Amino acid sequence: MGFFDSNIRIYPEGARSGEDIDTRIELPKLREDVANGSISHVICTHPDRFSRDLTDKLIACREFEKNGAKLVFTDTEYENSPEGKLFFNIMSAIAEYELALIKKRTVRGRLAKVRDQKKIMPMRVAPFGYDKDENGQLVINDTERQYVLMIYEWYVLERLTLRQIGERLYGKVMPKRGESKNWNATSISRILTSEIYIGKYYYNRRASQKVRGELTKGGNPKKKYSMREEKDWLMVEIDPIVDIEMWKLAQKQRVQNDTNKHVGNTKYEYLLKSLLKCGHCGRRFDATTYSGSHNRDTGETTKIRHYRCPNTVPRKYGPEIKKCVAVSLNAEQIEGYIWNRVIQIITDPDKFINKFRGQGDEAILAIVAQKELFEKNLTIKLNALDKAEKKYYEAQLEADEKRIEKHIKDYKKDIALLEQEIENCQAKIDAHRMEELTSDQIIYMVQKLREQISDGVEVPFEIKRNIVEILFEEIIVTVNRDGGDDPTSSETKIDITSVGVFDKLSQDGINYGVCSQPQKIRQYRRRPRRPDLHWNDWPDQSDRELPAR
């Protein structure tokens, strides 16, 4: 073409995609130089290298022609004529179609490998606790596995925060990517939430779309992500590190942490916040304060902590809106009463833990044996179904087909029933394992509490709260008046019942596998026209008997 090397300026782009013209690095420089008049010819191997997008390609080429730069392609002929431009546009449209087709085939091939071959697609870094073998599959890293188990135990049993876990990990083991020896909350949270650690690797959960004209800090095209429908997910089983029950407890703990993150603040702390529930309308009690006595010397008014049903002061107005009949509860008094009941477990934990664990063991062994029997029968039925289906296809008489078809229908019905029974047994076994882990939580927290008490140190609010959260799912408060819902009735009785582990520990016997009813903690009387429950209205705190409901 008659050009000297000194006249040639190269704009290398390597393997960068030609899909988006705005995210290219060198092409904008070329367009700027052409606009400045310093380029007379633009030489390219093929029109596709400008852009795979027809619109982008036409814009760039028109800019070049407008500024007097001639287009030259080495791998194809191009004439600056109506016919040449038509051919150029046709080739560009085909290139755009080919790009879409390549993407579709690539995605389809990946999905087929995951679905049929259970192959894990390449990832930049394996999750913490795993390594990639020579085939790209995930295998457990024994050293990191120990720290994954520690993270779950610290979070579930010791109730440590993400910050406290990160401080314990610092200096012992580095995060997977090795970019820093410091752990962050995101990395730890990912370990505590990812289903990879219970042996479930999901592919095709997220859909990505490039953000046109934007790049990441690393210079790659920026993408935005959205979740696909669950039916489109593909799951590959890998070796688990954490038990499913421990993982579920961690998720339950996360929900509690989100719910209770404002339980305590620098000014007021509420031991039973989000746990007290109105037995009349079902609303959670609010934690609030009322004004108390006024100190004339300091000019300050004391605040008294209370729990109250929000429907006692509804935000909707009108004659059809009824106020809840629940009463306001003095926080100090009800917290003291509940905590004294908790101390009952602290003083003699073995009695309750042995009952909690021991009586479930014999029953769970029977359930395991029952599950094994169901599985054995299921295998027999599946084999019989397989034989019946083969006979059905070999049958020559219509009468034989109908008879075999009836057998197939019966086999499928029996198989469905057996699978349901096996699922029910497994649910009971999982529940038993969850209760064992819960008792481990209680033992750990009780030991920690007893150490505090023996040292003469006041028990921190956080420890009290953790124990209460383990023991109680909810505490139900119900008002019973002689005069019905008349607040001026001569006598008022208030029932306090509980749902959760405390309920199980307080019962004389445990019928394992059957959901227990809420346990009545105490019934006490409340004098009429009193603004609140007073300490004198509470029963003798030494009475430790918990009558069954």
UniProtKB/TrEMBL annotation:
For this entry, the protein name equals: Resolvase-like protein
Domain (Resolvase/invertase-type recombinase catalytic): give its ranges: 1-117
Residue span(s) of domain Recombinase: 127-260
UniProt xrefs under PROSITE patterns: RECOMBINASE_DNA_BIND, RECOMBINASES_3
Native organism? Paenibacillus antibioticophila
Q: Which residues form a coiled coil?
A: 385-435
Pfam families per the record?
Answer: Recombinase (PF07508), Resolvase (PF00239), Zn_ribbon_recom (PF13408)
Residues covered by region (Disordered): 521-549
**Keywords, comma-separated and alphabetical:** Coiled coil
Q: Does the keyword Coiled coil apply?
A: yes
Q: Which GO molecular function entries does the Swiss-Prot or TrEMBL record give?
A: DNA binding; DNA strand exchange activity
> Per the UniProt record, which residue ranges are transmembrane?
none
Basic and acidic residues bias (residue ranges): 530-549
Recorded hits in CDD domains, A to Z, give:
Ser_Recombinase
| Keyword Nucleus recorded | no
* InterPro entries named among the record's database cross-references: DNA_bind_recomb_sf, DNA_bind_recombinase_dom, Resolv_N, Resolvase-like_N_sf, SSR_resolvase, Zn_ribbon_recom_dom
